[in-house]
Specification:
There is one protein chain. By secondary structure, the chain is of the alpha+beta class. It has a domain of 59 residues. 51% of the residues lie in helices and 13% in strands. A hairpin with a 2-residue loop joins strand 2 and strand 3. Helix 1 packs across helix 4.
Length: 86
């Protein structure tokens, strides 16, 4: 079992890396929570995931359509780092 990540961005990267395609932020949130990649008691995890994707402060994501993202090159490199050994 994969332990939950401490950062939303790591959980998002894991989901997008596993999917290897663009996903809407609501689907990303569903996959994060259903796989136990992040634990939250927050009332609006959809908005949190959407905000992290749209802010893209680490340049990990590429927007492909409104609300839909895939991993960019920096995100692919980070995916390899965070999933190594899991």
């Amino acid at each position: 079992m994969i332990k939950p990540y401490k950062l939303w961005d790591h959980a998002i990267i894991h989901v997008l890396g596993d999917a290897n395609c663009a996903l809407h932020y609501t689907e990303v949130k569903e996959r994060i929570l259903s796989n136990g990649f992040y634990m939250t008691d927050g009332e609006t995890p959809d908005m949190t995931v959407g905000r992290n994707l749209s802010q893209n402060k680490y340049n990990y994501y590429t927007r492909t359509a409104p609300g839909t993202y895939k991993l960019g090159n920096d995100g692919k490199a980070e995916f390899c780092k965070i999933t190594k050994g899991k």
